[in-house]
Amino acid sequence: xxxxxxxxxxxxxxxxxxxxxxxxxxxxxxxxxxxxxxxxxxxxxxxxxxxxxxxxxxxxxxxxxxxxxxxxxxxxxxxxxxxxxxxxxxxxxxxxxxxxxxxxxxxxxxxxxxxxxxxxxxxxxxxxxxxxxxxxxxxxxxxxxxxxxxxxxxxxxxxxxxxxxxxxxxxxxxxxxxxxxxxxxxxxxxxxxxxxxxxxxxxxxx
Length: 206
Description:
six-stranded parallel β-sheet; globular; alpha/beta; 55% helix
């Protein structure tokens, strides 16, 4: 069975370059690419009709005007559970990695990594394994121990804080009120033992 992929990234040159490199250095076949969530959803509906869904979706996390891609990942995972999701992002704070994996991603690779690592990730998750870039794993283990006292929602909020989203953006991403976000943040600061957002990012950010 052919190994196929689809890539979504709002930076056209990076998207085109990544797509071309993968096809030139492997036997993976590209079924499409897009720069917006809306276009990706439309493409996936058409691919589903043709029984041609990709084996792997390579997904960035940050999109101009669309906040982060956590909600997108969650929706794709729910609608098309057979598609394995590899996050390929410039954000590599442990909170972002954890939140992406909890929302349905099977792999996570930093854009600072070599292209070979992205290809390795694709192969691993296609085979049914999870893959997190090696130098991100140590950070994630440490972060997981620190956040054990947090609820799932608090972990989501903390991950978005580490992704440098504003309170308004976090409220929009999680579909909750801004006041609720402020309350979650206060609890997080108390549980984690930090003074403010700058302190949190300095200790646990990328």
